[in-house]
Amino acid sequence: MHAVVVTVSISDHDPATRHLNEVVVPGVSQAPGFVAGYWTRKDDSGIGMVIFESEDAAEAMSERVPSMAPDVVTIENIEVREVVAHA
């Protein structure tokens, strides 16, 4: 399994959260190879981690991430990482 880890800055929480729940989560959960997704926030920063069955599926999603962000969210970093353990 591989994870797409995305770090963002959020300038307006309400529209960012609405977009996350109405657009990002449904879109990501329908992606090929999707296993699970978690999105977190602290103050004006957020981290999302979405797990995929394969590195290819994770890489494909990592390329889609920039087009999914609304204007109130700035993407700081996108990484694809191997999942080495889970519980």
Structural class: alpha+beta
Write the CATH fold name.
Answer: Alpha-Beta Plaits
- What is the helix tally? 2
Q: List the uncertain runs.
A: none
- Overall spatial form: globular
**Alpha-carbon Rg, integer:** 12 Å
**Amount of beta strand:** 35-45%
Largest sheet: 4 strands, antiparallel
Q: Give the helix level as a range of percent.
A: 25-40%
Secondary-structure element string: EHEEHE
What does this structure look like?
- The protein has two helices and four strands, in the order βαββαβ.
- The chain is an alpha+beta fold.
- It has one domain (2-82): 2-Layer Sandwich (Alpha-Beta Plaits).
- Strands 2-3-1-4 form a four-stranded antiparallel sheet, covered by helices on one side.
- Strand 2 and strand 3 (45-52) form a beta hairpin.
- The two termini are 13 Å apart.
Please describe the topology of this protein.
Blueprint lengths: L1 E9 L2 H17 L4 E9 L2 E8 L2 H14 L4 E10 L5
Short description:
This protein is α+β, with helices and mostly antiparallel strands and 87 residues long. Helix content is 36%, strand content 41%. A four-stranded antiparallel sheet has the order 2-3-1-4, with helices on one face.
List keywords for this structure.
four-stranded antiparallel beta sheet, alpha+beta, Alpha-Beta Plaits, 87 residues, globular
